[in-house]
Amino acid sequence: MLYQSKIAGLGSYVPDNVVTNDDLAKLMDTSDEWIQERTGIKERRHIKEEGENPVAEMGVKAAKIAIERAGIDKDEIDLIIFATLSPDYYFPGSGVLVQDILAIENCPALDIRNQCSGFIYGLSVADQFIKTGMYKNILLIGSENHSGGLDFTTRGRGVSVLFGDGAGAAVISRSDYVGQGILSTHLYSEGKHALELALKGPSTNHWVPEIIKENPQEDIPYFPYMNGQYVFKHAVQRFSEVIKEGLDTNGLEVSDIDLLVPHQANLRISQFVQRKFKLSDDQVYNNIQKYGNTTAASIPIALTEAWENDKIKPGDNVILAAFGSGFTWASAVINW
User: Fold this and answer.
1) pLDDT value for 198
2) Burial class of residue 240 in the structure, from the number of CB atoms within 10 Å of its CB (0-12 exposed, 13-18 middle, 19+ buried)
3) What average pLDDT does the segment 59-65 reach?
4) Is 261 a residue whose pLDDT tops 90?
């Protein structure tokens, strides 16, 4: 017997520390006009005082909201799925840290490393576990600490102006209503492009700046690298393909889309896709202007905000789509 899965609760958290484009202009050769023209971003949030394990702790703050909204107790969580590219440690993963903070006994934790596509990959994994009857309630978190490992000099401005910190969470639960909930997910990758958007050096732990201080002239791969135009070109193509596949699989037309929530990579990418599908502003939800690119956290933060602002109602067809490092890309079709 196959069960239906649904998103039963959503939550998000972003640090209080707002970093504007003008703030970044004090650190590097850039400007508010330069950043907005290329990315659409006006400001982002950066961790300032978020605790010892900020990625897990931000995830917990988002998760507590999602669990409460799902109307369940934390001890009813059967599995934790944690998506991030910036874990608190190389190992263990941040999923077990969440389990410990929430004091959930013996709950399995699974960490997903699919960067910008991580939340949808995690959603697909959760959907399969629910459908097969193995689990009933799954906590899915996307959380990122980008600011700990960015190059805030003119050398790194092409990447550093893009990213922000934050977390989003969803509780995926068994549903009794066939035809509602998560209808389908679609996952892809193309590893030959892996190094076009990559971090070859260590994670975002605080000792990275110390290495840089010791080797100020060395061209070291401890900061993210992105071939911007190359990524943009592939992103708009893959976004379009995977959205269309989701619609076709479920017998839907573009006109049936009530809300598209794309990964918040770059406002120009979202606008390109919107124009291609001829979607109205009411059919697409973007909040990159306020938060920047929060990678695995971007879709759950945007989805939570859209739901809180009554942009999503029961029966709506909601499309999620993402593209990122790997290259990986994915989509999900949900009847709310």
Assistant:
1) 87
2) middle
3) 98
4) yes
- Which are the catalytic amino acids? 116, 263, 293
Phi, psi of 217 (to 5 degrees): -100, -10
Summarize pLDDT for 146-155 with one digit per residue, the tens: 998 899 999 8
In DSSP terms, 327 is beta-bridged to none
Token couple for 140 = 């899915």
Cite the DSSP H helix spans in 134-219: 157-160, 208-214
Angle between helices 54-70 and 94-102 (to 10 degrees): 60
**What's the rounded Cα separation, in Å, for the pair 257 and 233?**
24
Q: What angle do CA 6, 67, 99 make, to 5 degrees?
A: 110
Rounded Cα–Cα distance for residues 125 and 78 (Å): 13
Domains recognised in the chain with CATH numbers? 4-178 (3.40.47.10), 182-335 (3.40.47.10)
| pLDDT value of position 90 | 85
Residues 322 and 116 sit within 8 Å (Cβ to Cβ): yes
